[in-house]
Design brief:
Elements: H1 4-13, H2 19-23, H3 34-46, H4 51-59, E1 65-69, E2 86-91, H5 94-107, E3 110-115, E4 128-134, H6 143-152, E5 154-163, H7 172-179, H8 189-198, E6 204-209, H9 219-229, H10 237-246, E7 250-252, E8 255-257, E9 263-270
Parallel strand pairs: 1-2, 1-4, 2-3, 4-5
Antiparallel strand pairs: 5-9, 6-9, 7-8
Helix pairs in contact: 1-8, 3-5, 9-10
Length: about 270
């Protein structure tokens, strides 16, 4: 019998980088620059509300509390600052926590942050009216305790956002080009919904096209980031730059991006906190 949770876990585990490639990497291929998420949060506050923000705002009482899990710079929660009375962020990166608190202070909203991984630090955080969790689920192989803790902390609603396809799918041509490796194509949003519903959650879904171009202001930064992702040394930067341009990387609204506009899914379900 097909197990959606096991299928989700197995597909994510298939993304593991082969040991021989990882061992030869001069730098860690994981992580994101803090500035990338800070800029994304700033753009989120300047744009019209997304379907995810609208869904969260519809469940948020005036002056209510928002818990942002995997907050980064606060792109999921800061657009709610005008309605929320308090924002609480959880992120494992000290730099992201600092960026979130700075942005919240600039927005004039009461905020606090907890550094750590979810759900390990869930016990340090109280319930909130709405829990938001954007672009984190693809990092979570063991979905049951993660989603369970999200649900247990939401009085009204959990709102999760993720891309329709796994975000690393776009790097497949470069892995093929530089390492001769074929990379996975899943999981995707359909698999996320199936796994969450297997946990007994009543998931509502809305699909849309994101106008937020997740990219870099500086092309050299994009090249260096991609090169680290591919476990290559810095001297390969010119080759990576050429490959990115050949694959269609271009500048849109001042941001260097690859591929087409992102298809995104907003998933939401009832919370269980009292």
């Amino acid at each position: 019998m097909d197990d959606p949770l096991a299928r989700w876990r197995d597909q994510l585990e298939a993304w593991a980088i082969p040991e021989e490639v990882l061992a030869a990497a001069p730098e860690s291929p994981w992580g994101f620059p803090v500035g990338l998420f800070r800029a994304r949060a700033e753009r989120a506050g300047a744009r019209p509300p997304t379907p995810s923000s609208q869904e969260a705002a519809g469940w948020l009482p005036p002056g209510g509390t928002v818990l942002d899990v995997g907050a980064g710079g606060g792109a999921a929660s800061l657009p709610l600052a005008g309605r929320a009375g308090r924002l609480v962020a959880v992120d494992q990166s000290p730099g992201m926590v600092e960026a979130f608190l700075t942005a919240a202070a600039t927005a004039g909203v009461d905020a606090e942050a907890v550094q750590g991984s979810w759900p390990e630090v869930a016990g340090e955080v109280g319930p909130a009216d709405v829990v938001v969790c954007h672009h984190v689920l693809y990092n979570v192989a063991d979905l049951a305790p993660f989603a369970g803790a999200l649900t247990d902390h939401a009085r009204r609603r959990v709102v999760a956002e993720l891309t329709e396809r796994h975000p690393l799918v776009g790097l497949a041509p470069l892995w093929r080009r530089f390492h001769g490796l074929e990379r996975p194509s899943g999981p995707g949003a359909d698999d996320a919904v199936a796994a969450l519903e297997a946990l007994g959650l009543r998931v509502a879904r809305q699909d849309w096209e994101s106008q937020d171009r997740f990219g870099f202001d500086d092309f050299d930064e994009l090249v260096a980031f991609t090169r680290r992702r591919l476990c290559l040394p810095a001297e390969r930067d010119p080759e990576v730059a050429a490959a990115l341009l050949e694959e269609g990387t271009r500048q849109v609204d001042g941001v260097w991006v690859s591929g087409q506009p992102r298809r995104v899914a907003t998933l939401s379900w009832p919370g269980s906190a009292s």
